[in-house]
């Protein structure tokens, strides 16, 4: 409108400012015009809140008119129309007050809030960022229930939630998917616990409402993540299991109260956090399965051999070597697996679900039993089967045991999928570490006789070791065809104790 903002500011003196309040949804200022010393109060904020404070308005010609009920309803329709178009509707109002008002305001610290004149309404478009809808869909397909908690009015909130994909057609206030903060706050504790699951959008909410919802969801056993950027969001961010604050628009208080700071303020990053979090969790499970298989097999073979023959086939140096390649190299190999799309199709892990699942027990026990069986046969019948000395037989046991772990490392890549080689060409560190392990094992057997207490093996013996170790692949494939119950194994023991 070709107005000079700085010029206008110089013609007024600011007497008092009432900052924006998340409960009142408005802010105001008391100013004195230098030209004639008249005092004015100005308000801006949520359109329906400002409209309720007005008793008159200016028409298009600038003429002041009384705001009757008919006109008030007309303005409400305009506000609802803007909100339904996902516009954030803001209203402006003012009133000229007596000069004595300055003293009253300074004493009460409160501006005049009634009989104002409505100046105008503005609809501000705050479009969803590109990729937000896809990110919401990714989170929903991963079993994450997204809820939008906003200070906007219910019509704006519904429109934005529908645009983002949080709210689906047919979800409305009657179905319980959309509520206002005051309504949620006034529920009894039992009603809140009953209805919190269905709520997708909470409009006109206060920071306390956000905190209340987080507490309710946690009480129902959910793992709760909260995003926020304001100082008022700090209690909810702290209360949540995972607090995510915004790196650009977020306040320092919000960042300090959160666990993760999203540097680009983009919701799509939440889906990335979810994907990588699941990847790390799955990689830990893979390593635990792999490590337990090694430990069970080594413990059983050494224990049985020690009890029956009085000697152990695996020496201290050999066990140290096994632990080195399994703990260090094995962890590195399995930890380098990158996230896949399949991770986002799995349901989330519950708060009390065990780290070692039934699927992991099935896989590791099958491999451990096979390794124990092969090593015990070699321990008691290896010398006669291969017509070798005791020292060579012990080397065969050691070599077979290590190669079994190398082959089983491939099985550990996929806990449920039968094709353990899918995407392996993309994981160069895994292939490099496996290759390094094989090279070091050859050095241990063939060249470090005195250090490792081993004997050299011929081609036939190497072939036999590799063949016995390679059987772990078909065993892994067959075992994954066996269904397992969803209920954790150890929960049956607890149930028996109770009965």
From TrEMBL:
<dbReference type="GO" id="GO:0016887">
    <property type="term" value="F:ATP hydrolysis activity"/>
</dbReference>
<keyword id="KW-1278">Translocase</keyword>
<keyword id="KW-0109">Calcium transport</keyword>
<feature type="transmembrane region" description="Helical">
    <location>
        <begin position="460"/>
        <end position="479"/>
    </location>
</feature>
<dbReference type="Pfam" id="PF00689">
    <property type="entry name" value="Cation_ATPase_C"/>
</dbReference>
<dbReference type="Pfam" id="PF13246">
    <property type="entry name" value="Cation_ATPase"/>
</dbReference>
<dbReference type="GO" id="GO:0005516">
    <property type="term" value="F:calmodulin binding"/>
</dbReference>
<keyword id="KW-0460">Magnesium</keyword>
<keyword id="KW-0112">Calmodulin-binding</keyword>
<keyword id="KW-0175">Coiled coil</keyword>
<keyword id="KW-0547">Nucleotide-binding</keyword>
<keyword id="KW-0106">Calcium</keyword>
<comment type="function">
    <text>Catalyzes the hydrolysis of ATP coupled with the transport of calcium.</text>
</comment>
<dbReference type="GO" id="GO:0005524">
    <property type="term" value="F:ATP binding"/>
</dbReference>
<dbReference type="GO" id="GO:0005388">
    <property type="term" value="F:P-type calcium transporter activity"/>
</dbReference>
<dbReference type="InterPro" id="IPR001757">
    <property type="entry name" value="P_typ_ATPase"/>
</dbReference>
<dbReference type="InterPro" id="IPR023299">
    <property type="entry name" value="ATPase_P-typ_cyto_dom_N"/>
</dbReference>
<keyword id="KW-1133">Transmembrane helix</keyword>
<dbReference type="GO" id="GO:0005886">
    <property type="term" value="C:plasma membrane"/>
</dbReference>
<dbReference type="InterPro" id="IPR006408">
    <property type="entry name" value="P-type_ATPase_IIB"/>
</dbReference>
<keyword id="KW-0813">Transport</keyword>
<feature type="transmembrane region" description="Helical">
    <location>
        <begin position="429"/>
        <end position="448"/>
    </location>
</feature>
<dbReference type="InterPro" id="IPR006068">
    <property type="entry name" value="ATPase_P-typ_cation-transptr_C"/>
</dbReference>
<keyword id="KW-0406">Ion transport</keyword>
<feature type="transmembrane region" description="Helical">
    <location>
        <begin position="292"/>
        <end position="310"/>
    </location>
</feature>
<dbReference type="GO" id="GO:0046872">
    <property type="term" value="F:metal ion binding"/>
</dbReference>
<keyword id="KW-0812">Transmembrane</keyword>
<keyword id="KW-0479">Metal-binding</keyword>
<feature type="transmembrane region" description="Helical">
    <location>
        <begin position="316"/>
        <end position="335"/>
    </location>
</feature>
<dbReference type="InterPro" id="IPR023214">
    <property type="entry name" value="HAD_sf"/>
</dbReference>
<keyword id="KW-0472">Membrane</keyword>
<feature type="domain" description="Cation-transporting P-type ATPase C-terminal">
    <location>
        <begin position="312"/>
        <end position="481"/>
    </location>
</feature>
<dbReference type="InterPro" id="IPR023298">
    <property type="entry name" value="ATPase_P-typ_TM_dom_sf"/>
</dbReference>
<dbReference type="InterPro" id="IPR036412">
    <property type="entry name" value="HAD-like_sf"/>
</dbReference>
<keyword id="KW-0067">ATP-binding</keyword>
<protein>
    <recommendedName>
        <fullName>Calcium-transporting ATPase</fullName>
        <ecNumber>7.2.2.10</ecNumber>
    </recommendedName>
</protein>
<comment type="similarity">
    <text>Belongs to the cation transport ATPase (P-type) (TC 3.A.3) family. Type IIB subfamily.</text>
</comment>
<feature type="coiled-coil region">
    <location>
        <begin position="90"/>
        <end position="117"/>
    </location>
</feature>
């Amino acid at each position: 409108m070709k107005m000079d903002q700085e010029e206008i500011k110089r013609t007024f003196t600011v007497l008092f400012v009432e900052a924006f309040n998340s409960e009142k949804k408005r802010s105001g200022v008391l100013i004195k015009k230098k030209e004639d010393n008249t005092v004015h109060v100005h308000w801006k904020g949520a359109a329906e809140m400002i409209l309720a404070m007005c008793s008159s308005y200016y028409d298009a010609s600038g003429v002041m008119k009384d705001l009757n009920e008919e006109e008030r309803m007309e303005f409400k329709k305009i506000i609802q129309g803007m909100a339904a178009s996902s516009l954030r509707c803001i209203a402006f109002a003012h009133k000229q007050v007596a000069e004595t008002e300055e003293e009253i305001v300074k004493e009460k610290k409160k501006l005049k809030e009634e009989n104002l004149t409505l100046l105008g309404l503005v609809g501000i478009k705050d479009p969803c960022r590109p990729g937000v809808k896809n990110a919401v869909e990714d989170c929903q397909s991963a079993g994450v229930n997204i809820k939008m908690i906003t200070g906007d009015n219910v019509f704006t909130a519904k429109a934005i939630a529908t645009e983002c994909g949080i709210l689906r057609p047919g979800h409305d206030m009657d179905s319980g998917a959309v509520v206002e903060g005051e309504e949620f706050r006034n529920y009894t504790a039992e009603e809140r616990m009953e209805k919190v699951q269905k709520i997708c959008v909470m409009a006109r909410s206060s920071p306390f409402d956000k905190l209340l919802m987080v507490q309710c969801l946690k009480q129902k056993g959910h793992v709760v993540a909260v995003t926020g950027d304001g100082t008022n969001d700090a209690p909810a961010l702290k209360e949540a299991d995972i607090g995510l604050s915004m790196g650009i628009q977020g306040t320092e208080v919000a960042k300090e109260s959160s666990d993760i700071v999203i540097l680009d303020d983009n919701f799509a990053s939440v889906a990335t956090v979810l994907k990588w979090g699941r990847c790390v969790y799955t990689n830990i499970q893979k390593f635990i399965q792999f490590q337990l298989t090694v430990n069970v097999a080594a413990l059983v073979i050494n224990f049985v051999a020690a009890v029956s023959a009085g000697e152990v086939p695996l020496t201290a140096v050999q066990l140290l070597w096994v632990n080195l390649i399994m703990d260090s190299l094995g962890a590195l190999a399995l930890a380098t697996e990158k996230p896949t799309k399949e991770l986002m199709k799995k349901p989330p892990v519950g708060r009390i679900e065990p780290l070692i699942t039934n699927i992991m027990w099935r896989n590791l026990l099958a491999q451990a039993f096979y390794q124990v069986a092969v090593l015990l046969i070699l321990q008691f019948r290896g010398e006669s089967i291969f017509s070798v000395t005791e020292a060579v037989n012990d080397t065969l046991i050691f070599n077979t045991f290590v190669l079994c772990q190398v082959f089983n490392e491939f099985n550990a890549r996929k806990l449920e999928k039968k094709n353990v080689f899918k995407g392996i060409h993309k994981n160069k560190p895994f292939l490099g570490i496996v290759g390094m392990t094989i090279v070091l094992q050859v050095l241990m057997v063939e060249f470090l006789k005195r250090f490792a207490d081993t004997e050299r093996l011929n081609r036939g013996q190497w072939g036999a070791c590799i063949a016995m170790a390679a059987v772990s692949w078909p065993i892994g494939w067959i075992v994954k065809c066996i269904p397992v119950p969803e209920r954790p194994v150890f929960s049956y023991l607890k149930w028996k104790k109770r009965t």
